[in-house]
Amino acid sequence: MEPSEKLKEYGDQMESEDFARFWTDDSSATEIIPVLELFYSMYYEQANVMKNNLHVLDELKNEISMFLFSNPLMDYLDIKTFIPSLSLTHDISLAKSIGEPTMPSVVSDVCSPFGDKLNIFERAFNAFSAPYLNFILGYPEYRSFKSPYNIIDIQSIEPEASFVFLNSNPFVDFPRPTLTKTIEIGGISVNLNELRSQKLDEKWSSLLNKREKTMLISFGSVLFSKDMPLENKKALVSAIKKLQNVTFIWKYEEDETDDFAKDADNIHFVKWVPQTALLADSRLSAFFTHAGLGSINEVSYLGKPTILIRTPSCIGSTLSETVFH
């Protein structure tokens, strides 16, 4: 299916200065709401794209008997067996739907900036912020692709799920009460044996062999390095220059770097990196990154020393979870 023009606009907005401002602006739960609303808009528009391509869905009817939970598709294809699957470590709304205990005042939720030890004010903040976000954002509202196009009651469907998949690592996440049907699959894509058996090509291998130590710098796919304030980039490069025995591989989205790193000969700028393969290589000494959940899962399994900075593209609790360990 081809994306609609509106979906393309949302994609452009993801790369706009709307997100660049978070390098300097507050990244509190209140400030992150417009970002979450943009994601919601993308989900709704993707549903519209599918609605306009029902012939593609018709071809799937005889091929799919189970789905990982996409409400309009499930409804249209008459799929009865489904598994809610989240990219988050936890979701209070889903937990409530399936009858799982939720205690944000005791265990920090995904958007909370706090860790496992909470004072009375932090407990109050958590207890207030979780229902506040649910009130502001509301529950996703999808309409059926079939006439009379009624609203799909998601909360009445979710309890019927046999299993729920969460992008959580039970050895890293804060302990919380869960149902037996909640399966934590965080890091499922990290195949240690396969990664460690792979050989990097000559380009990456030569970079890792260039100096005694090597550090990878990457801040994810939402907040770009190119949008980091110039003074921050200069400060980071100033520190890097003092470590001449270390090669720094920096994922940077533009070619022009002379305004802050003209004479930094131990930095190698690249627009893309084979992140998991590099992290699995013993020659990579450390990782400098945002506290994104994907990166947290990877370094947790691969055991790579990591320096984390907090950005709005990370989930609040992931940084606290890693510090906890």
UniProtKB/TrEMBL annotation:
An example Gene Ontology molecular-function term: glucuronosyltransferase activity
Principal location: membrane
Domain of life: Eukaryota
Keyword ATP-binding: no
Gene Ontology cellular component list: membrane
Swiss-Prot/TrEMBL catalytic activity: glucuronate acceptor + UDP-alpha-D-glucuronate = acceptor beta-D-glucuronoside + UDP + H(+)
Location in or out of the cell: Membrane
Record's keyword annotation contains Hydrolase: no
Pfam families reported in the protein's UniProt record: UDPGT (PF00201)
InterPro entries on file: UDP-glycosyltransferase (IPR050271), UDP_glucos_trans (IPR002213)
Membrane topology, from the record: Single-pass membrane protein
EC nos: 2.4.1.17
Keyword annotations: Glycosyltransferase, Membrane, Signal, Transferase, Transmembrane, Transmembrane helix
PANTHER family for the chain: EG:EG0003.4 PROTEIN-RELATED, GLUCURONOSYLTRANSFERASE
Family membership noted in the UniProt record: Belongs to the UDP-glycosyltransferase family.
The protein's name in its UniProt record: glucuronosyltransferase
